[in-house]
Amino acid sequence: MPEKKIKSYLLVLPIFLGLFTIHYFTLREDTLILIAAYTVAFASFLVSLKYADFSEKEILILGIGARIMLFFSLPNLSDDFYRFIWDGRLIDLGINPFSHTPEFYIQGNVQFSSLSLDLYEKLNSPSYFTIYPPVSQFLFWLSATLSPNSIVNSVFVLRLTLLFFEIGSIVLIVKLLKQTGLAVSNTMIYAFNPLVILEITGNLHFEGVMLFFLLGFIFLFQKNKTKLSALAISLGIATKLVPLMFLNFALRKMKLNKFLVFYTIAGLSAVVLFMPFIDLQFIHGAAGSLDLFFRKFEFNSGLFFLFREIGYYKRGFDMIAKIGPWMSISAIVLILSYSWFIIKKTTYLPTILITILFIQLSLATTVHPWYIIPLIAFAALSEFRFPIIWSFLIFLTYSGYSYNSFDHPFLIISIEYIIVIPLAIYEIVKFQRMNYQKNS
Questions:
Q1: pLDDT-based confidence at 14, cuts 50/70/90?
Q2: Is residue 17 within 8 Å of 38, Cβ to Cβ?
Q3: Distance between CA atoms of 46 and 36, rounded to whole angstroms?
Q4: How far apart are CA 352 and CA 332, in angstroms?
Q5: CA distances (Å), origin 194, targets 25, 121, 218, 424
Q6: Spatial distance between the Cα atoms of 386 and 416, rounded to a whole number of angstroms
Q7: Structure pTM?
Q8: 310: Cβ–Cβ under 8 A, 6 or more apart, which residues?
Q9: What would the pLDDT profile of 402-423 be if each residue is shown by its tens digit?
């Protein structure tokens, strides 16, 4: 093996060691070890981006290897997967998971062997309706039907499923880079990113599935396959609702006939995918959960916390119930304005998607680390680099967890957004202008 290749493998080794330490030997509350191990992994990742020399095949093999390494333990940084298993077991019993909250079954003494009290006690939101769309629910059901009584085996099935989509995403990133003439080595930005590996394979977040469909949408759209790209984005919406905001790009990006075809197919596909779950209880439960999300949940939101402190100062209480919805409305207005006034037919699609998602995340009341995963993939397809910096800073918000509670680490959050927001705005403006000059 050539010396240069050996050096490249040694450069990525600390990524594996850091991820291994976090996943198998660290609890979410072990802040010092958690941050130290992640810092080592991330530093190795940055050095690898600059100096490692891998072929397309080697990047794929190493990326898969890092993910398979995390297969043999339950998630340790998030407990959301228990709700995935709960919903899957409900569907396996022939019950619509949107019909009732988990506490309905426990308090009502509804007896099902697979809906055990032990599983219920691990849920982080038993009094809330589920918010996971039908494609995610199908994959939850798959894990439950293949392993109806074992949490460990269900987790293994979920990980295997996510690995399948992750491989697809890496392959699509390679194809898109070749399609646009960018360096294939950019694939490492996504394939080797410690946050991506930990939050998708390690913690079982379904951004990995949604992203596959988003990348498929970009690939098909850039090949002028309007119908297939519409189907791809509808599958993304039916996995996580996030891609709904990207539909605005068509306001200025498509001609009228393609615009109508795209929206018709995307809309009908979404209706068909949601149809098995839709009833009055679904509408009531979904609406209630979304309302609670905007009015009650708050995590790592730089601008919201700033407005909240102003509210405390002027009113003396947490004004999330009022500020949350207004921030969401502001995000919608800004995204629509960007879509209508800024986007041109020459604008590169990943630039559009990065800008729209950044606007939404900047004005969200809740920004968990896994929410920025699509930004990291879009960075691999472009010259944007703020998502890479963000993927380090956002992980530091785990420092707010203790063994008894969670306290927002406001100093870390302040540093995070003081760095990320100006850098993001600078890059968005810079590359938007460069794109216009290059293609006009």
A1: very high
A2: no
A3: 15
A4: 15
A5: 16, 30, 24, 21
A6: 11
A7: 0.93
A8: none
A9: 887 788 888 899 999 999 999 9
